[in-house]
Design goal:
2 domains; 7-stranded mixed sheet; 7 strands; 19% strand
Length: 164
């Protein structure tokens, strides 16, 4: 019974723990991957609360056109800071695979004038569909997929100036 000696017993325990750890690591890596929502890169803001928004799952697409207005009035196209003029230029020639809808993610405390600048830039660029992203005062179940919600709007074409 030489394998029960103190030195060998410690080595045996180490081997057992090593095998157990290897089995655990193999089991975890072979487990099915989660179907949770992919996190999008973006600027975090506190969205306005509404009770009449509709789900807009397209806002989570990788190629969605998202403009963020921060509480201090900063503008971001995706994660890049922009001016209203730069935004109009970026929106003028979007790739054809993108959706024609512009999603505006404005902080609830953002100056209204900054949101209007985004709407003007979208109008200048010829964007017709705009969705203002909001948050809902509803509780969600843990682990449930939560789609972005918003209020969809259409930008009207400006009428020609009235004849004098």
């Amino acid at each position: 019974m030489s394998w029960l000696k103190t030195n060998n017993l410690a080595g045996l325990k180490n081997r057992v723990w090593s095998v157990a750890l290897l089995a655990l690591a193999t089991t975890i890596s072979a487990a099915p991957q989660s179907s949770a929502q992919a996190m999008q890169k973006g600027i975090s803001v506190d969205l306005a609360r509404t009770s009449s928004a509709v789900p807009v799952p397209d806002a989570d697409n990788q190629d969605a056109l998202i403009v963020t207005v921060t509480d201090s009035g900063g503008l971001y196209f995706g994660i890049d800071p922009v001016t209203p003029e730069m935004l109009a230029e970026k929106l003028k020639a979007p790739p054809s695979h993108r959706t024609p809808t512009l999603y505006i993610k404005a902080d609830a405390r953002a100056p209204y004038a900054c949101v209007v600048k985004v709407l003007d830039a979208a109008h200048t660029a010829g964007v017709a569909g705009v969705t203002l992203l909001t948050t809902q005062p509803t509780a969600t179940q843990a682990g449930a997929v939560v789609w972005p919600e918003g209020i969809e709007m259409q930008l009207a074409r400006r009428s020609p100036p009235a004849a004098k």
